[in-house]
Amino acid sequence: MDAHSISRRNVIRCTVAAACAAALPLSLSACAEERSYKAGMFIDGAIDDGGWGESCYNALVSASEAHQWEHTYTQHVDEDDWEDAIEDLIDDGCTIIFAPGAQYTEAVDQAAAEHEDIKFIVLNGDFERDNVENLVPNNAQIGQLAGALAGLISKTGVIGLIGGTGLEGTKEKVANYEAAARAINANIQVVEDYADSFADEERGYEIATEMVEQKNVDVLFGDASIVDAGARRALYDLGRGMAIAQPNDAGSSYDQVIAGSVLTDNDMMMRNAFRDIESGSFGNKTVTGDASTGGVGIGTLSDVLVEPFIQERYAGIADQIAQGTFIG
User: Fold this and answer.
1) CA angle, residues 96, 99, 103, in degrees to nearest 5
2) Domain edges within the chain
3) Fewer CB atoms inside 10 Å of the end CB: C or N, the chain?
4) How confident is the model at residue 50 (pLDDT cuts 50, 70, 90)?
5) DSSP at 129
């Protein structure tokens, strides 16, 4: 388990506190309402993986800094150590714990029952407690955006998807990825595989290599965090195939492998959860993000891999997906 902390003291709150002390007792009640929080995230992968982990960590940092709260993280945490990682963060003074994936649900549920005074935020979570909020992007729209692009750019008529494990959110993406691709090309073939991990980059490399070389896959979409980085590395090494990234904008207009990205605004959802904490309305709630509100969207398309007329058509399809009219 590789741990590292970043803490930022709230200078403004200290200044306010000093002013309150000078003004006692007139503003005592106002000062008493001032409260500082510390948010901590743990993850089985890395915070600089160029994908899922990085997006989640950036959301934590951005929301924490916006509220002038401290923040910290622990990365490369093995599954057997998830519960210990939560306890370590709490011992470090964290009053908010962020678990960036549904795979952490069991560990969080147990910790939330034991620490009713701690706020727990779970990305793609699906359970309710007074001290738990779930952040859930629209997985159906994510799958549709990826599938539509794959269907538009595939030359072989065979596209692939690599999942970490069989999480419900991943299954929803897979179903919609296939449906959207087939709305573009009814004869398209979809190959899927699971790495049984979110942190095994080499497994992603192996799966992608097999899909391209043995199954003629020419477009890959990943839902497996750092495994996706391995899959993209395989495409670069092979000099064949295209990737669709998520949840941040991983490509560029001149990228040779990443055709485009499907974006999830984890920052927006995290800030909403933090506002719930500040307002006292936190718990038993799901904060959602979808294409109609900007919580889900499309990133930069590669001009090398996606022709202008396809980019224009894809933009129109993205609008239909936001409106819920692309797939019946």
Assistant:
1) 155
2) 2-137+267-293, 139-265+295-323
3) C
4) confident
5) B
pLDDT digits (tens, 9 = 90+) for 161-184: 999 998 899 999 999 999 999 999
Question: Facing residues of 298 across strands?
Answer: 262
CB atoms within 10 A of CB 157: 14
Q: Quick check: do 2-137+267-293 and 139-265+295-323 share a fold?
A: yes
Q: How far apart are CA 282 and CA 113, in angstroms?
A: 16
CATH tag, 2-137+267-293: 3.40.50.2300
The domain defined by 139-265+295-323 folds into: Rossmann fold (3.40.50)
CA distance 41 to 104: 12
Q: How confident is the model at residue 72 (pLDDT cuts 50, 70, 90)?
A: very high
CB 5 within 8 A of CB 61: no
**pLDDT tens track for 220-241:** 999 998 999 999 999 999 999 9
pTM to 2 decimal places: 0.84
